[in-house]
Amino acid sequence: MYKIVFLRHGESIWNAEGRFTGWTDVKLSDKGIQEAKNAAKLLKDYNFNTAITSVLKRNIETLEIVLKDLGLTLEIEKYWRLNERHYGALQGLYKKEVAEKYGKDQVFQWRRGYDIKPPFLTENDPRHPRLDPLYDNIPNEYLPLGESLKDTEARVMVCWEKNIAPLIKLEKNILLVGHGNSLRALIKNLDNVSEEDIPHLDIPTGVPLVYELDKDLKPIKHYYLGNQEEIKKRTQEVKNQAEYSKQ
User: Fold this and answer.
1) What is the pLDDT of residues 163-206, one digit of tens each?
2) Which one, of 178, 55, 181, 58, lies nearest residue 118 by Cα?
3) Mind listing the pLDDT tens digit for each residue in 7-47?
4) Are 55 and 133 in contact (CB under 8 A)?
5) Which of 4, 47, 94, 218 matches a 20 to 30 Å C-alpha distance to 72?
6) Total Cβ atoms within 10 A of residue 34
7) Catalytic residues
8) How far apart are CA 24 and CA 57, in angstroms?
9) 2-85+148-243: what CATH class?
10) What sign results for the dihedral spanned by CA atoms 75, 7, 87, 193?
11) Chain centroid, CA 204 distance in Å
């Protein structure tokens, strides 16, 4: 049996402000820092020897905090293909204002629809990832102007097959810090979640999610660590944010 632990990064400053983030490289909020520290407490019995995440600082910060609190010194493997879904021209906008302008249903589709793309950036937009030094070594044709979850899934699964699955089969003890949508993409594939159901999969921030896998890397079972009632509450909060039911 193999095992891998997923962790969605702690709350970022733009999460706290209710803004579309995507590939924008923002830091953790104070709450997000505490969420990372709380995750470390739940992971105290896990002896990780491999740490994987995206190239975005909110993920890297989360992972660094967890490793520090666990007393582990590991080289972090960073992959741009594990980045959050690129929200195109929505990035930086306030979700509530966008919902007021376009309607909650449209924004829900932009945020959660499997094959629904957001409004794209233009080629000369200063937010274009080709202008970000993080992606200097990535061919322009791989850098998106906006993505659906389907697009995100395609690049994430390349990373899974090429970089992550081989390490699992080497029996590495892996902690993977992901984003809401990169983790949804992985879970969709691991659990064969349908295109119709994936928009309603909610993943709380800062709560470790353990997957136990068989020899073919098919799930045997998965479970969140921590107080299950608190996890349900935090999952509902994520659901509320997606549906704007409390805004």
Assistant:
1) 999 999 999 999 999 999 999 999 999 999 999 999 999 999 99
2) 181
3) 999 999 999 999 999 999 999 999 999 999 999 999 999 99
4) no
5) 218
6) 15
7) 9, 84
8) 10
9) alpha beta
10) positive
11) 10
